[in-house]
Each structure stands twice: as structure tokens, then as C-alpha cells.
Design goal:
- The longest helix is centred in the last third of the chain and has 9 residues.
- The chain has one domain: Sandwich (Immunoglobulin-like).
- The chain starts with 9 loop residues before the first helix and ends in a 21-residue tail after the last helix.
- Helix content is 13%, strand content 28%.
- The radius of gyration is 21 Å and the shape is globular.
- It is α+β, with helices and mostly antiparallel strands.
- It has 3 helices and 9 strands.
- Strands 1-9-8-3-4-5 form a 6-stranded mixed sheet. Strands 2-7-6 form a 3-stranded antiparallel sheet, with no helix packed on it.
- It binds 2-acetamido-2-deoxy-beta-D-glucopyranose.
- 2-acetamido-2-deoxy-beta-D-glucopyranose binds next to loops.
- This is Ig-like domain-containing protein.
- One of its GO terms (cellular component) is membrane.
- It comes from Poecilia latipinna (sailfin molly).
Length: 163
């Protein structure tokens, strides 16, 4: 990823200038009770399979904070809970983290670190997860005041007892 090559102190300045966009802080929105996938890929073709960890919060100088899951690049080594899964193609460098059955406590910043051998060569990606309450959208969908144009006119099953 050429857009994520800055690892020295200058990256602090760059982060301050571009703290909302750039390679840092992709945004993902999920709903409570649903699964959500936080994207992360590394260059496995040129770097080979490497150790990757996922943690919560900012990615520290080494390893991961509050580690949720780690992989040797081929299989999952550790996970803090069975809700954390790698369902992507590990052999293609897809180490996206799937969180099952989201709760509101899952909202926040996550960090993915691929430990590429060499000084300052780790690939690091932040993902900011927003969790919407599923109950809110149920209320919206069933509200008589919302437009029904997206859902074709009321489609009700005839009650069985009529027959
Ligand atoms: C969440 O993922 C699990 C495991 O892949 C799957 O069994 C389940 O059906 C998924 N749930 C939803 C709501 O998609």
C-alpha cells in the first residue's frame, strides 16, 4: 500500500493534518445483532504470509493494543472471543475481521497490524466502527409516517382462520 508507507515521526504530522481521511480510519457502519466486517489486507504476494494482529484503539509502536485476534498468516492463533473471526481469504492477504452479533460496546476504533519483517515496515490500518441500534431502524420501517414507496404496498398474508 503506497499510501501507508510513512512510519517515522513525520507520520504524526501527517496524521494531524489528515486525521479524518487518508489510509487511517476507514469507516464501517454495523447494526446491533448483525455481523460486520472490518477490512484489512496486506501485500502477501511480495511479502509472503506474515503475523497479523487486531486490537482495539490506536495501533501502538509494536504489536496490538487490547488484542482481539492474531494469525500467523495461515490460521487464527488467538482470539479473545469466538465473536471475532477471519472469514476472508488468508492466502490472498485478506485479514479482514468479522465481528459476529454486534453490540453497542463494539463501536470505536480498531487497528490491524501486519508484521512485515524489517524496520518500520509493518502495514497498519485503522477502522472506525459505528454501531446503529437495530431497534431504531425497526421503528423507522414500521412508522406510519415514513414513505412506503420503497416497500410495495402492504403485503399481508390472509389470516388462516378465514378458510
Ligand atoms: C453471522 O455470521 C455467522 C458465522 O458466519 C453466521 O452463521 C450468521 O448467520 C451470520 N449472521 C447474520 C445476521 O448474518
Amino acid at each position: 500500500m503506497t499510501d501507508c508507507f510513512l512510519n517515522f515521526d513525520i507520520s504524526l504530522i501527517v496524521n494531524l493534518l489528515f486525521s479524518v481521511s487518508g489510509c487511517d480510519g476507514r469507516r464501517v457502519v454495523g447494526q446491533t445483532g448483525q455481523n460486520v466486517t472490518l477490512p484489512c489486507n496486506y501485500d502477501i504476494k511480495t511479502k509472503g504470509a506474515v503475523h497479523v494482529c487486531w486490537g482495539r484503539g490506536e495501533i501502538p509502536k509494536s504489536k496490538c493494543n487490547n488484542q482481539l485476534l492474531s494469525t500467523d498468516g495461515h490460521k487464527v492463533e488467538t482470539r479473545a472471543s469466538s465473536r471475532y473471526q477471519l472469514l476472508g481469504r488468508l492466502d490472498e492477504g485478506d485479514v479482514s475481521l468479522t465481528i459476529l452479533i454486534l453490540t453497542e460496546e463494539d463501536a470505536g476504533r480498531y487497528g490491524c497490524r501486519a508484521e512485515i519483517p524489517g524496520w518500520f515496515s509493518d502495514e497498519k490500518h485503522h477502522v472506525d466502527l459505528t454501531v446503529e441500534r437495530a431497534a431504531d431502524s425497526v421503528v423507522l420501517k414500521s412508522s406510519p409516517f415514513t414513505s412506503s414507496s420503497s416497500r410495495s404496498a402492504d403485503h399481508r398474508e390472509p389470516p388462516d382462520f378465514l378458510f
